[in-house]
């Protein structure tokens, strides 16, 4: 079975934190604060509370407002509703709402033009609908529901978590024959991490180059979870801030060998996986996919 091939791209450094943000986190683009900060508000005005500036909709509660009303509105309706008050601008500006409008639209498949800015998907939607500029307003709304997604995608991962030790045995491929692999790991069903097998792969250098990836598959539409992007668009998405999303898009494509054949010359399948029982199904529609192209930044997960 062919291995999963991957490329991990580091995320740009976080900008300098602004006042009223969590340590190491830049300010929310629409001025949303954690709910607890309301009690420390120096203005001492009750109009900063969500319940005072959302009109009759305040009786619904923010979970119902977001989950059963706003998520079913189209982009124009969201934009118009956001003009009614600072609070509604904050709630209609939740980036997940705009992400669904962009990635869930079949007409945008392979045509997404990522924009820059903190309100990432809202700006992207505006750009694709004619280049409107999303407003930048300090809404001064206090809501954990709105602030948490922003916090999660900007909060640095503690070193003790990212450097946790693995208890799975590691074996260098130069010290492991196919027969030993079968005897020690395949037959008893023991997991193992193989190391040193990619030293001769040209992918180790070529796939770190944006220019090479765009040459190899820049205009090929790739499966990216909830949305489909070309490699060129994904690289633009990542550079413009997509890597800081709570649920970031990452390439997870099982057809790259057919759509991006140039990439298949950059790696070699380990001897341990060159043959498997599924070979009996080669040439048929029943042969399951056994290799995926995975490209993403730190924090990406399936």
TrEMBL record:
InterPro entries: F-box-like_dom_sf, JMJD6_ArgDemeth/LysHydrox
Region ranges (Disordered): 1-30
GO CC terms in record: nucleus
GO molecular function: cis-regulatory region sequence-specific DNA binding
TM regions (residue ranges): none
Family matches, as PANTHER family: ARGININE DEMETHYLASE AND LYSYL-HYDROXYLASE JMJD, JMJC DOMAIN-CONTAINING PROTEIN 8
Designated name of the protein: Uncharacterized protein
Native organism: Perkinsus olseni
Lineage: Eukaryota, Sar, Alveolata, Perkinsozoa, Perkinsea
């Amino acid at each position: 079975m062919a291995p999963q091939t991957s490329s991990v791209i580091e995320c740009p450094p976080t900008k300098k934190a602004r006042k009223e943000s969590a340590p190491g986190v830049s300010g929310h683009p629409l001025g949303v604060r954690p709910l607890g900060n309301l009690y420390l508000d120096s203005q001492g005005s009750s109009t900063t509370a969500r319940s005072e500036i959302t009109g009759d909709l305040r009786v619904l509660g923010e979970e119902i407002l977001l989950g059963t009303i706003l998520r079913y509105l189209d982009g124009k309706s969201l934009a118009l509703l956001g003009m009614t008050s600072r609070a509604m601008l904050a709630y209609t500006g939740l980036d997940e709402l705009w992400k669904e409008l962009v990635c869930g639209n079949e007409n945008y498949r392979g045509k997404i033009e990522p924009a820059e800015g903190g309100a990432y998907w809202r700006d992207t939607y505006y750009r694709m609908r004619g280049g409107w500029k999303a407003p930048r307003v300090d809404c001064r709304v206090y809501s954990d529901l709105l602030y948490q997604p922003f916090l999660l995608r900007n909060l640095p991962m503690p070193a003790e978590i990212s450097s946790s030790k693995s208890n799975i045995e590691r074996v260098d491929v130069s010290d492991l024959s196919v027969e030993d692999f079968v005897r020690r790991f395949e037959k008893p069903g023991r997991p193992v991490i193989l190391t040193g097998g990619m030293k001769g792969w040209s992918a180790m250098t070529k796939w770190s180059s944006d220019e090479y990836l765009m040459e190899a598959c820049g205009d090929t539409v790739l499966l990216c979870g909830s949305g489909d992007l070309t490699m060129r668009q994904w690289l633009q998405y990542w550079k413009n801030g997509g890597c800081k999303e709570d649920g970031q898009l990452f390439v997870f494509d099982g057809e790259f060998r057919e759509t991006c054949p140039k990439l298949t010359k950059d790696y070699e399948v380990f001897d341990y996986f060159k043959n498997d029982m599924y070979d009996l199904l080669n040439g048929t529609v029943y042969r399951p996919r056994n290799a995926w192209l995975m490209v993403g930044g730190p924090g990406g997960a399936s």
